[in-house]
Design goal:
495 residues, alpha+beta, 15 helices, 32% helix
């Protein structure tokens, strides 16, 4: 039996290739950052060709570090930054425009125009999503409306669209597979939650030709075979990054939830085989679909800026040299000095969905120093998570008893303790905190029989560390009220 499974994890700021063994342990990893392109305020782009080049680099790198070849891998899975939109030429594989990133707000006018008839929630009954700049559909429309010649070419079937998963799988298979999975499809504003296929009425509304869209498939099945350094390896798993983390955290039962701390923060709650409509500003989304089994749905709370705020303090302000320095700087002060940092850099996501919000630091006095700013930046992640958890409890009717966490920021003890304090529940970090790549590997391995059953994966999950709340109830209540007050100061900033 081939020993390992690989996962290509294409994220917002970097790409990595990870190789796992049968017990879910990391055998090898290679990672590279790619450029963030900001042509105008509120615009965020990536060079899709650079992303594919980085993907090839890290595949080579991870294989070399472990002394492995393609022959040692049973399958490869893909996980990706969701909603980031690529349109490329079928004949040449060249993008017609830079990838428009999920954080980009240029489609605000498109969303506002669509909301004039039926409001921001007009597509929610079919898609589970509000009209927001976050999702892929309006981004495709923007490209077809603004890049000369693309609309005609798309109608003729000369152009292809995909989220980054589709772009990576197309390239991995040498252009043989133009596919996406239900989890990525559910982030486009174009897929129907019930049929698990593109909705003809919505495609007509957005004026997006069906000919350019990928086939919607299960999250775990063989889509094609790799060429290049992974030649002969089946591509057999595809999950959006947050759904992949849910899967990697083995949240297979309704009521199980995880929170991933990355560029943004994303809490997902498994709601079983039926979509649960949200009344509290959450997204109803696809969790995963394993082969022919029924699809599993989730409620999701999406926060745009968490880890990205730490990067901003590093890159734009030069407050720290590397992201890991934030904890030491925050620990130089006892508290936030009375300030609250609401990082609405690309509007507010859950539970507000306000495209017109922008970031604020509220409560500034002469007393405040850079330690307080660092601490308020970390606390912003925890408070935004609290708002999402409140919405989740309201929608599901099931109060969360503990939170499984993963992603880069979970090694920040100060943040994790504060997170437990403000949620008033234990926070649990698993041994393998890189659960996004692990989830994609699991999906791929299940498709080829490397793992037999979903439930078999639970034995691989192990606890590394747990934090318990220490904050008193009165402090929690007062500080949360102050946070909420600060959030209201961001509303309506863009006219």
């Amino acid at each position: 039996m081939t020993k390992y499974v690989g996962a290509l994890d294409q994220g917002t700021t970097s790409t990595r290739f990870m190789i796992f063994d049968h017990s879910g342990k990391v055998v090898s990893i290679d990672q590279k950052e790619h450029e963030q392109i900001y042509p105008k305020p509120g615009w965020v782009e990536h060079d899709a060709m650079e992303i594919w080049a980085r993907s090839q680099d890290v595949i080579k790198g991870a294989l070399a570090k472990a002394g492995l070849t393609a022959a040692d891998l049973a399958a490869v899975g893909v996980t990706n930054q969701r909603e980031t939109t690529v349109v490329w030429e079928k004949a040449t594989g060249k993008p017609v425009y830079n990838a428009i990133v999920w954080q980009d707000t240029r489609t605000a006018d498109i969303c506002n125009d669509l909301a004039k008839d039926g409001g921001q929630d007009r597509l929610r009954p079919k898609t589970g999503l509000p009209l927001a700049t976050y999702f892929s559909g309006p981004k495709v429309k923007w490209i077809l409306d603004n890049v000369p010649g693309t609309r005609e070419r798309a109608a003729k079937g000369e152009l292809l669209f995909g989220n980054i998963d589709t772009w990576c799988i197309w390239n991995l298979t040498g252009g043989a597979a133009h596919v996406t999975d239900v989890s990525n499809g559910s982030r486009t504003l174009m897929m129907n939650l019930e049929t698990l296929d593109w909705d003809p009425e919505i495609l007509a509304l957005l004026n997006v030709p069906r000919a350019m869209l990928p086939a919607v498939r299960a999250s775990s099945e063989v889509y094609g075979t790799c060429v290049g350094d992974l030649a002969g390896v089946p591509v057999a798993g595809d999950l959006g990054d947050q759904q992949a983390a849910l899967f990697g955290q083995t949240c297979f039962s309704p009521g199980e939830a995880k929170n991933t701390y990355g560029t943004g923060c994303f809490m997902l709650l498994n709601t079983g085989n039926k979509p649960v409509p949200s009344k509290s500003g959450l997204l109803t989304t696809l969790g995963y679909k394993i082969g022919d089994q029924p699809a599993v749905y989730c409620l999701e709370g999406s926060i745009a800026i968490t880890g990205a705020l730490v990067q901003w303090l590093r890159d734009n302000l030069g407050l720290i040299e590397k992201s890991a320095d934030i904890e030491a700087l925050a620990a130089t002060v006892e508290d936030n000095g009375g300030i609250y940092f609401v990082p609405a850099f690309s509007g507010l996501f859950a539970p507000y969905w306000k495209n017109d919000a922008r970031g604020v630091i509220a409560g500034m006095t002469r007393y405040v120093n850079k330690g307080h700013i660092a601490r308020a930046a970390l606390e912003a992640t925890a408070w935004q998570t609290r708002e999402v958890l409140d919405a989740m409890n309201a929608d599901s009717g099931v109060p969360l008893t503990a939170l499984k966490v993963d992603g880069g920021m979970v090694y920040n003890d100060l943040l994790m303790q504060f997170q437990s304090d403000v949620l008033n529940v234990p926070v649990i970090r698993p041994v393998v905190a890189e659960t996004t790549a692990l989830g994609a590997a699991y999906a791929a391995g299940l498709a080829v029989g490397y793992w037999a059953e979903v439930e078999d994966l639970r034995v691989n999950w192990a606890k590394d560390k747990e934090w318990h709340p220490k904050m008193d109830a009165a402090t929690r209540t007062k500080d949360y009220a102050d946070w909420k007050k600060a959030v209201t100061r961001t509303f309506g900033w863009i006219e």
